[in-house]
Design goal:
The protein is an alpha/beta fold and 253 residues long. The chain has two domains: 101 residues, NIF3 (NGG1p interacting factor 3)-like (Udp-n-acetylmuramoylalanyl-d-glutamate--2,6- Diaminopimelate Ligase, Chain: A, domain 1); 117 residues, NIF3 (NGG1p interacting factor 3)-like (Udp-n-acetylmuramoylalanyl-d-glutamate--2,6- Diaminopimelate Ligase, Chain: A, domain 1, 3-Layer(aba) Sandwich), CATH 3.40.1390. It has ten helices and eleven strands. Strand 9, helix 8 and strand 10 form a beta-alpha-beta unit. Helix 2 runs parallel beside helix 3. The radius of gyration is 19 Å and the shape is elongated.
């Protein structure tokens, strides 16, 4: 299977049509589209460490969740930002592809996996029109701090930020992995007691309290790294060996 054939096969399972209009995922680096793919590195982000590991392990491609070229790239230079990782891959003929919001939106994708990781039933979707990638679920009424501690433990997050406001218990749960600041109002409109996400902002926490909904931030990495075993499984189904790089390069100190 060539690089291009692999990308096309994955895109049939995770269609680009599901991507948000502002997203920029896909096959972003392809030095040799006809290169045979036997081994792929799966990572959340294309960092220099991930690129080095891909080279060291003899990988033919890298598959990430986050696009490594998102904002306009004005230059690719050695020693500057993404330049080191991109140039290292290109020098070794290694391609790189990403599956971002299309994977978030996918049935069985990121947010469904987040539900499963937390032991929640997968309910309805929610979000602004055209961006309904969040998930809703319900649990028996539970103490909010007990619930937050349970979520933090399930995700292996070293730190979680809870903005509870006047909330003491939770029953209706909204969740969206990664950066979920744009989902606080839609979650409140759905009657959710709490939004679980990776990160938001101070202003979002204030806004949440104004709308009577709690906010639990568990870390962008920890709400999304759960996708890597699924990436690896999809590759193995196609006869491709997978290497997982799941190191969090941000530490809690």
């Amino acid at each position: 299977m060539t690089v291009y054939e692999l990308y096309e096969a994955l895109s049939k399972e995770i269609p680009q049509e599901l991507s948000m209009p502002w997203d920029n995922d896909g096959l972003q680096l392809c030095p040799d589209p006809q290169r045979e793919v036997k081994k792929v590195l799966c990572a959340l982000d294309l960092t220099y460490e991930a690129a080095k590991l891909a080279v060291e392990n003899g990988c033919d491609a890298v598959m990430t969740h986050h696009p490594f070229m998102f904002a306009p790239v004005r230059s690719v230079r050695l020693g500057e930002g993404k330049g080191d990782a991109l140039l290292l891959l290109a020098k070794n003929g290694i391609s790189a592809m990403s599956f971002h919001t299309r994977y978030d939106a996918l049935d069985g994708g990121m947010n469904d996996m987040l539900c499963r990781a937390l032991g929640l039933e997968i309910g309805e979707r929610f979000g602004d029109k055209g961006e309904e990638i969040g998930r809703l679920s319900e649990i028996p009424e539970t103490d909010i701090r007990e619930f937050a501690a349970r979520v933090k433990k399930a995700l292996g997050a070293p730190v979680a930020l809870l903005s509870a406001g006047e909330k003491n218990t939770v029953k209706k749960i909204a969740l969206c992995g990664g950066d979920g600041k744009d989902f606080i109002i839609p979650a409140a409109r759905c009657g959710a007691d709490i939004l679980i996400t990776g990160r938001a902002s101070y202003n979002t926490a204030v806004e949440a309290q104004e709308h009577g909904i709690a906010l639990l931030e568990c870390g962008h990495f920890y709400t999304e790294v759960i996708c890597l075993p699924d990436f690896a499984a999809r590759l193995r189904e196609k006869g491709v060996e997978a290497v997982i790089y799941d190191k969090c390069e941000i530490e809690a100190v």
